[in-house]
Amino acid sequence: MSLSPRLQVLLLIVEVFWITLDQETHSSVIKLGIEFIINQFSTKILTSILFRYA
Question: How many helices (H) and strands (E) does the chain have?
Fold first, then answer.
């Protein structure tokens, strides 16, 4: 598959931007994402327990 020159330039800009981002920003975003997933999972478990024994 051949990419258009515009798309190649856009991907290069995104890649350079991604590499130059601060490492702390990455870890903060990852921590927030993990907390969100854990909260969603906990909510589903607690809701299913509540409905089962209600």
Answer: 2, 0
Domain ranges of the chain: 18-53
Contact 40, 48 (CB under 8 A): no
Q: Give the separation between CA 50 and CA 35, rounded to whole angstroms.
A: 22
Q: Half-sphere exposure (CA, 13 Å, Cβ side) for 6? A: 0
Six-digit token string for 40 = 């969603």
pTM: 0.45
Provide the 8-state DSSP code for 4: P
For residue range 23-53, what is the model confidence (pLDDT) as tens digits?
A: 667 777 788 888 888 888 888 888 888 888 8
